[in-house]
Design goal:
The protein has 215 residues and is of the alpha/beta class. The protein has one domain: Alpha-Beta Plaits. It contains 5 helices and 7 strands, in the order ββαβααββαβαβ. The chain has a 7-stranded mixed beta sheet with strand order 1-7-6-3-5-4-2. Helix 2 crosses helix 3. The protein starts with 5 loop residues before the first strand and ends with a strand.
Length: 215
Amino acid sequence: MVRPTPRVACSGTGDPDHPHPERPPPDELPSQRPALPHGDPGDLRLRGDVDPASVLVRRSLDERLQAEWNRAARSGTPLAVLFLDVDNFKAYNDHYGHQAGDTCLMRVAAVLGSQVKRAGDLCARYGGEEFVALMPQTPTSQARLMAEKVRSAVEEASIPHEHSPTAPVVTISCGVAAFVPTLDRAPEQLLHMADQALYLAKESGRNRVHQVDPE
């Protein structure tokens, strides 16, 4: 299967003609970071109970992504993904400690869940300091607006981050991708496009939203 070449749109100072190098791994965390649970799909634990923000673990995301992909392909409606990363989280963990880092992730999860809350929407912790929001029946324009709302809400939560070169508070970068699925394509393509957009958001200075569209 030949994947479409993505086109990029961005908020901030990013270059839309920036090439698409392989995305490096997210900010590495010390080995003490909380492990992702892989048990029951309804398990919402993030080293203890996550703030009630309907943020699920990755196994639930994989199951729902496939189901929503199939549904959107049959109905001909767009499916959107927001891929979020907490900026400079390793520096946060190193300075404030791992317990504070866990609390920070829970607060970000709560903000995400408070914004992405339509019936059918799903928010999941993807790994480390990364989160994904899955939004059925959502075109790119609406997904981008939601990503900006989430980014702004996290910044306005004013979680102190004295060692961030981006801002004195915790911020996030966000990648956006959306299109109408087809059954001859894989749902991982949508995640990959959102991941590309997230990488470009981080490369362009962080605390911003980038969008990748198929041609």
